[in-house]
């Protein structure tokens, strides 16, 4: 009986949850950097289409970087805070139910394992052993899909989002201000295309999707954004 994966099932879940959480953070970082690259590249290339004044391009790029970074951080903080508040409320409800209706909760947990394919007797034994080991963890994970020890910190998410966006934004900003007027736009476009190919590949790898499609889609979208903003900047620059 002890050879049946009662404990193995319980031990595997935190490991898998931790791995998925790390992958989610990496994927969020890659996507944040991607946003920084595309949005800042669009701004600086657009301004470069209107003027060759390096100071004007730098000011616009820095303003776009700061606005985007703080916007990303604020959005991530609000989103993660809302999710964390919901998870904490659900955990509080689960604690109360475990305290007030332990037998009902045990039967509910056993039924979850029956629905997953275990026999009623084995499901009952699994539920009992997991509840004795960590009642809240077992019930929260099986019923709610929440790991009580792995609630995302909103401040950490906000800082990570801000940092990844800033790192991505620095590439087009530095590229376009360091090169001479005649070369800055094409060099920036090439640098951005290479960076977007990398972030597209990374997001596909972390998301277990096809890398070639992700790279082509990412690069094409970024180039289109830069071409449009450059054209608009050039058009406005000739009329101002």
TrEMBL record:
Signal peptide: none annotated. It is a multi-pass membrane protein. It comes from the Bacteria. The keyword Zinc-finger does not apply. The keyword Transmembrane helix applies. GO terms for biological process: intracellular manganese ion homeostasis. The chain crosses the membrane at residues 157-181, 187-208, 215-236. It holds the Pfam family VIT1. CDD domains: Nodulin-21_like_1. GO terms for molecular function: manganese ion transmembrane transporter activity. This is VIT family protein. It comes from Nocardioides acrostichi.
């Amino acid at each position: 009986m002890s050879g049946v994966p009662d404990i193995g099932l319980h031990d595997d879940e935190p490991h898998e949850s931790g791995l998925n959480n790390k992958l989610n953070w990496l994927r969020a970082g890659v996507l944040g950097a991607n946003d920084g690259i595309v949005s800042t590249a669009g701004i600086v290339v657009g301004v470069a289409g209107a003027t060759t004044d390096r100071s004007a391009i730098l000011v616009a790029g820095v303003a776009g970087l700061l606005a985007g970074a703080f916007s990303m951080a604020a959005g991530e903080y609000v989103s993660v805070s809302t999710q964390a508040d919901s998870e904490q409320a659900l955990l509080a409800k689960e604690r109360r139910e475990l305290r007030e209706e332990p037998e009902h909760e045990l039967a509910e947990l056993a039924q979850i394992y029956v629905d997953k394919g275990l026999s009623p007797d084995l499901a009952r034994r699994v539920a009992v052993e997991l509840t004795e080991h960590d009642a809240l963890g077992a019930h929260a994970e099986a019923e709610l899909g929440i790991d009580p020890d792995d609630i995302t910190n909103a401040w950490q998410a906000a800082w990570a989002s801000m940092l990844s966006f800033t790192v991505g934004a620095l590439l087009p900003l530095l590229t376009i201000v360091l090169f001479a007027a005649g070369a800055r736009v094409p060099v920036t476009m090439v640098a951005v295309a290479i960076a977007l190919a990398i972030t597209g590949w990374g997001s596909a790898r972390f998301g277990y999707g096809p890398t070639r499609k992700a790279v082509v889609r990412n690069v094409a979208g970024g180039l289109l954004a830069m071409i449009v903003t450059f054209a608009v900047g050039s058009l406005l620059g000739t009329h101002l």
